[in-house]
């Protein structure tokens, strides 16, 4: 099963668990044909960014928002560790972090968030420029998870967004092949999985 929506609140969604039949120990979903659709959105620099920019590339993706009070900070710190591990291994892979709070997460917010974590924006793209309903649909249809909103606990955090806590590995053809626990990822395993894709095995 995929416990795909740990999210930023306490409730968990089981849609992906029912649909995938996968477990965290068996995270290979390459046979399930989770194909990322064509998209054109906006990155942290306010520039157009989309599927065409990732064509023929291997990429990791996750779902975050800059006002997230709990799981997004460790997820982003963990993704940075993976980016650094890839550099140390002399390997190339793109990283795409989609905001699940797109109305608030305008490019300047995403850029500030990225800089706070030391993300290398040459290969890590923070994405917005769509409606909340669009990102809900992308997560549901492609990644078999769910995104939902609820009132936040304070004026500083007025909105909480439940969203997947996984990292997803996408191959050169835009197909999701594996997922990982974004709160406890094994960077070495992810680097090795990317190497396997690069070698065409």
Describe the protein.
InterPro entries: SCO1/SenC, Thioredoxin-like_sf, Thioredoxin_domain. One of its GO terms (molecular function) is metal ion binding. Pfam families: SCO1-SenC. Disulfide bonds join 68-72. Keywords: Copper, Disulfide bond, Metal-binding. This protein has one domain (29-199): 3-Layer(aba) Sandwich (Glutaredoxin). The protein has helices at residues 15-20, 72-88, 107-117, 132-143, 187-199; strands at residues 34-35, 40-43, 48-50, 59-64, 94-99, 124-128, 148-154, 157-162, 166-170, 175-181. The strands form 2 sheets. Strands 1-10-9-4-5-6-2-3 form an 8-stranded mixed β-sheet, sandwiched between helices. It is 29% helix and 25% strand. α2 packs across α5 (187-199). The model is unreliable at 1-6 and 9-24 (pLDDT under 50). It contains 5 helices and 10 strands, in the order αββββαβαβαββββα. It has 201 residues and is α+β, with helices and mostly antiparallel strands.
């Amino acid at each position: 099963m995929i416990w795909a929506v740990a999210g930023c609140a306490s409730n968990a969604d089981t849609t992906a668990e029912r649909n995938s039949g996968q477990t965290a120990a068996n995270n290979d979903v390459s046979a399930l044909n989770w194909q990322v659709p064509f998209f054109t959105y906006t990155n942290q620099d306010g520039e157009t960014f989309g599927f065409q920019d990732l064509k023929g590339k291997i990429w990791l993706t996750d779902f975050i928002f800059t006002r997230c009070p709990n799981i997004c900070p460790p997820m982003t710190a963990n993704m940075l560790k993976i980016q650094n591990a890839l550099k140390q291994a002399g390997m190339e892979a793109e990283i795409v972090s989609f905001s699940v709070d797109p109305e608030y997460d305008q490019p300047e917010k995403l850029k500030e968030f990225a800089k706070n974590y030391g993300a290398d924006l040459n290969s890590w793209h923070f994405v917005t420029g769509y409606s909340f309903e669009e990102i809900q649909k992308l997560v549901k249809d492609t990644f078999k998870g769910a995104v939902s909103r609820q009132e936040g606990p304070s004026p500083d955090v007025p909105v909480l967004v439940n969203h997947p806590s996984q990292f997803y590995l996408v191959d050169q053809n835009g197909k999701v092949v594996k997922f990982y626990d974004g709160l406890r990822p094994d960077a070495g395993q992810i680097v090795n999985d990317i190497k396997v894709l690069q070698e065409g095995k």
